[in-house]
Structure formats: C-alpha cells, structure tokens
Amino acid sequence: MKAADGFLQTYNAQTAEEADFQLIVGQAVTQAVNDKQQLGPMLQAVEAHSGQKPAQILADSAYSSEPNLAQLEEDHIEGFIAPGGRAHGAKPPCCARGQVRKATPRVERMRRKFQSKTRTAIYAAQGNR
Length: 129
Fold this sequence. Notes:
The protein is of the alpha+beta class. The chain has one domain. The chain has a two-stranded antiparallel sheet. It contains 4 helices and 6 strands.
C-alpha cells in the first residue's frame, strides 16, 4: 500500500455487520489504499453470504462518493453514508433549504439527509450498541 514514507506491506480490511444481531455478514481484505472502491465488493459479499441485498447500509465518510451513492440508488438500497469534509463528531453545516432537485449531486443530497431526524435516530441506535 502506498503511504507517505513510500510503500508499506499492509492490507485494508473491510467488514459488514448486521445491525440487530451484530453478526458479520460480509468481509474482505484488499490492498486498496482507501475504501471508496470497496462498497460494491462489500455489497456483493453481503449478498453472497446472506442470500439477499441489504435494505439499508450505514457507512463512514470513507465510502462517500457520487459513484457509490449512484450504485445504492440503482440497487434500491437506502444509504446513510457520512458526507466527508469535517471533523469526527462535528455538527454538519447547514445546507440550502427547500426541495431537492434531481440535478442536485448525490453527495449534497446525502449531506441534507444527514441533517434529518431519521439520520440522528439511526446513528443514535448504532452508538448504543
């Protein structure tokens, strides 16, 4: 894996857990430097191990990208992927109010979703585990 000091012999481990029972339903180890390209393979791993696609996913900002959000939309999976660009635990900045247009980038739509009460409830439930 490429790092600031050159190349390191290391790996990037991915896991997907089922929220209610906290069981690992997908896993992978890759040499990819970041997680942006790992959402698709993890969704495939979950489907292979459980026999079905997830109805919802919750992921950190490392998975936040237009292609990943487009894939979730195409697969009819409700995503809660933290938008990137702010410190962990920091309150999200206020974004524009009003109706969201179809031309609005998916990352911006996710940013708005993260300001909703639904997002707060989902993340609160995960934090109490």
